[in-house]
Request: fold
Amino acid sequence: MSDVQIGKSQVYASTLGLGTNKIGGHNLFKNLDDEVGKEVLRTALRNGVTLLDTAYAYGFGQSEKLIGEVLQEAEFDRARVIIATKAAQVPGNEEQLDNSPEFLQNAVEDALKRLQTEYIDIFYIHFPDEVTKKNEAVKALHELKEAGKIRAIGVSNFSLTQIKEANLDGYVDVVEDNYNLLHRKAETELFPYLAKHNISFIPYFPLASGLLSGKYTADQKFAENDSRSKKADFTGERYQKIIATMTEMKIIAHRNDATVPQLVLAWYLKNPHIAAVIPGARNVEQMVSNAKATDIRISNDDYELIDDLFRF
Ligand SMILES: NC(=O)c1ccc[n+]([C@@H]2O[C@H](COP(=O)([O-])OP(=O)(O)OC[C@H]3O[C@@H](n4cnc5c(N)ncnc54)[C@H](OP(=O)(O)O)[C@@H]3O)[C@@H](O)[C@H]2O)c1
Reply:
């Protein structure tokens, strides 16, 4: 698996990472088993994945804690792993966001303890708060970088205006935001800005929460209490259009000797604006399969074809 440099930092991460909101993220998903989650982490590391994307918000520290525990196991070398974590939610009052320098300093110290490590490879401000000047927040992270506590600086869920303010001193290395074949707003203004300023982009929801895995059918019913039943992608005409497109994706996947999720992930990996992808995996099987996406080489024709298929 190849590595990619994160922004201007000295961090080199595997282009195929693992999103860990289903590892310890009990506040976000039901019926998660921490032992399964740890086995998914081990499987990722054994399959050459070095980039682990976590956050305080995933289980309010539990996801970070599980990562810390696995990295203590003799089989794994902390130095070879790229831990990306995030903070902004105030512990105990998670609806409230804080980007103040003091909050970020404490958040990094707390994350270091949960992760049982001396440094964090990529630290993101998870969400913008309403009051802190973004360049002041990033300056605090720059000081943590100089102190060796973090190695690269990221922001997530920032508008382009907020990213520009955050990067006034040129300190931002990476942006993480919602982007996938179904949600491509980032392409028009964000991608050109990031390319010009040598800032990496890591999309979240690369599989559109499973919709782009191709496993759903036209007559699929999502339960009332399933958040997907209220999302535009999963309802009405748009859902039917997506399912029809996934049928075409199955044909393209077949001729590339790939599964649909592998094809989708390989499409992102061929996109020069995308540094790395961090699909979530609920179980070991998904992890093993997703790690193989880096073996798929899509032709330029198929790349363009997929690009066109999703322009609706
Ligand atoms: N910065 C942010 O604010 C932010 C926000 C959201 C997410 N994230 C990060 O981005 C990561 C990715 O997002 P996500 O995990 O929510 O969504 P995702 O990667 O778009 O989708 C993950 C889901 O796709 C399905 N899936 C994965 N591999 C599969 C395979 N090989 N075959 C069939 N289905 C497969 C699984 O669905 P089932 O569970 O139905 O099996 C899995 O839970 C997160 O884990 C997190 O680290 C960041």
